[in-house]
Amino acid sequence: MTEKANFNQPQRQSLIGVLVMFTDTFQKIIRAMWPLLVVWLFKFNQMNKLYLGLGLLVVIALVGIIAYLQYLNFTFYIDEESDEFIISKGVLNKTKIAIQLHKIQQVNINQTLVQKIIGVHALDVDTAGSNKKEVSIRAISHNLAVALKTKLLSEAKKEQLNNQSTEIPLTDKEEPFIKISFVSLLKIGVTSNYVRSFGVLMAFFITIYENVKQILQSADAGDAANAVDEKIDSYLNFDMAVYSAFLFILVLFVLILIVNLVRTIIRYFDFKMAKQNHSLLLSYGLLNTKNTIIKPEKVQIVALSQNWLQKKMDVLNIKIKQASGNETDKENKKSALEIPGCNAVEKDEILKLLFSQIPQQGAKLQPNWRYLLFPVLFYVVIPVSVLLLYVFNSEEATLNYLVFLPFYLAFVAIMLYFSYRHYRLFVNEQYIIRQSGAWDIDREIIEPHKIQSVKVSQLFWHKRANIGSITIATAGGSLSFRLGNFDRVKELANLWLYQVETTEKNWM
Amino acid sequence: MNFTNETLNIDELPKYQEVPLQPLHPDYWKVMLISRIIFFVILGIVTGIVLFFNDEIREFWGYFMVILLVLFGISVVLGKLGFKKKGYAFRKHDVLYKSGIISETTTIIPFSRIQHVAMHEGVFARMFGLASIGIFTAGGGDSDIEIPGIEKEKALQIKQLLMSKLSEEPENPIVDHDGESEL
């Protein structure tokens, strides 16, 4: 089926790919200018429609020309002599990127919505030692993409004799062994990420509120704005406050549910996993289809996450962190692969594939009660004292708001209690499992031979109490356990060092 | 496959906490002192300029002097304590580095996990013939070690030693997921 493509000559992308580049550039412009656009939207009626239309046309024409130039200047080919994959690009600043084939770690074929509509694919090349995808061919036909991927990876393999798994790109014939059903996605969608969505929503509302206020103010500066301001503020008198607070929370909650649901479904729709030799192939996405490979030997940390509701519904999330050069923790989080909504059976199967058995929890280590001191200070002592200071220094009306304080304290107390109770380290000879979290219980699994370094630390006032912390770093992120019995901690450090130094296994 | 699996007696494992640590070279304290003095001299000059151009607070110049001196004193005392706490050791299979006054931290990197080694000579360190050794792993910035205040000759030796350890370790032991191996 696949045509025998020749990659030795510099070639361009599909011509229709100009469209992709066009939308890419256009998106970038909109993203950079969105605050301005929002303001314009509000002032739409006051503006000269003719100029606006002309301006828009000019921008579109410009972006179109840029996209076409980008298309013209983007070429790629494989240099057989130096074994390099070479890409030239750039309109004003010309760039030539040469990637040695043996450094190529992964080649992914993805599709965004635009690419889906016009029927092209993106091909991303991942290399070792860099934190971002260095090279992305934005528009290439599927056949060509598959052929190029095979070519790149087979060339890479020739040099990487030590890597045994022969790479065959994902074709539609792969028999997926796990398919995440739509129902599971629904379950995960409504039960996860409360905290993150809450933050996003809050930020969203605050921005909207501020913006509306600003726009109203700038629209008719002076008295009117102040009146509106007072109006908004006066809504918040106490009688309304309790009622509106509950209403607000309810609305927020429903919004969070919907946002989570929609995001999960768009992101992970039709989640398929296929086994191939020793690798896992993932493909997922409603609008943007993504394909990735997980190689068990590259996996550093496997994190299972499940909350009480999810337990009842028999779904959980798996996050897989793979080795990826010298990255900061933040970037690692981004590159972590997520498998949403598998059930207990599927989880066991995935774990078996990654570890060749199901990791068992070993001897338990729990934190000292002092573990609670810092969170108590941070979530209770400081905010409450600031609040009290503020309330008693202002008018009496605000005293009424103290009604909310017990709710907050009860909430924090429950969360802290559970976060303390769930914070555990389980160690046996093969696995290190750290459990943490108050509502979402995370269990992170590391194999000792993946450890890069061990760090033991103790605050000087904890010497008497004989407690201390340990951090183990892997190429996929670190994991620490705080304030455990220091004798045990030192013992663990010695054990893990012994294991790392005697193991035959490589960390990658 | 000759596989044995004796029970491991954790008590009999070598203990990192009992390894005698090598202190940093005494001259490194002078380097620390010089950099502190320079920092405070610059800070003093900046304060002086501010005082010169600002009439309102000029009369309080005495207070500024005292504050600067006290800060300098604290920084020197903490520096000395920190200097005494720092130490390193090389075992057969790993390198240890201990530091920290408030939080006493020991970082241990097994030789087999070292990605690369770097030697660095600061301006003042060079005046005393000192250098520092950076040891990097794939675990990212948090897991790396930088040992300062080593005599240059010794630093070179250490670097050689680590490099030889690096090449000694089988670069990529071919271990399959099932534990089969082939060459």
TrEMBL record, chain A:
Transmembrane regions listed in the UniProt entry: 12-30, 50-69, 194-212, 240-262, 371-392, 398-418
Superkingdom per UniProt: Bacteria
Keyword field: Membrane, Transmembrane, Transmembrane helix
Domain YdbS-like PH: 72-149, 269-351, 420-494
UniProt xrefs under Pfam families: bPH_2
Name of the protein this chain belongs to: YdbS-like PH domain-containing protein
Species the sequence originates in: Flavobacterium suncheonense GH29-5 = DSM 17707
